[in-house]
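Posting here for the record, re: heme C.
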Amino acid sequence: MNRTMKLVVIALVFTWAGLMMSNEAHLMAQPSQSRTKGEVEQLTLPNYRQWTHVKSMVIFDEKHPLYKSFGGMHHIYVNAKGLKASQAGGPYPDGSTLVFVLYEAENKGGAYVAGKKKVEAIMVKDRRRFAETGGWGFQAFDPQTHQPLIKQADVKSACYNCHASVKDRDYVFSRFVK
Ligand code: HEC
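Prediction output follows.
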């Protein structure tokens, strides 16, 4: 075997080994992929702008504990399935969905107006699918691409644990403003 051929053989062996390894990694990834099936990665952003407005709020000062993560102007919407429960303060039937949309709050000559959209977050009630998180599926979306941002493995620390402080209101903070 001349030198070039040796190099070719070595390169082929490495490529083959690499393929086998990535194949194996793929096979190993299978169980966790099937475990996450039907979970929060699969939630999509609904067309909520026709829904009922629940309330709005402007978090404008770092004195507020949520200023860092939720500073800005937000509006909350509920779909038709969840409307009665929202007005009553829960409990919500399966199929209920709430949306939290956050904009930058721009001070325009003494008035706060909605600036750039920062995030859209949803809670979808399905007691069977989301039994581990109070019967709610939590997800947040990139405002530009609408891609989901939360992995099932992180949903408790990112969303659920905080919402669990209002478990007696079916995990929903917002009170319907009449
Ligand atoms: C540190 C606490 C905290 C965390 C973490 C948190 N939220 Fe909330 N969330 C709130 C509060 C407080 C409100 C109510 C805001 C208001 O009163 O206007 C709220 C409101 C909401 C609402 C509207 C329904 C409701 O409960 O009022 C949705 C939907 C929502 N959050 C989704 C999410 C998602 C999805 C995540 C994770 C990406 C998340 N939240 C993380 C505190 C939190």
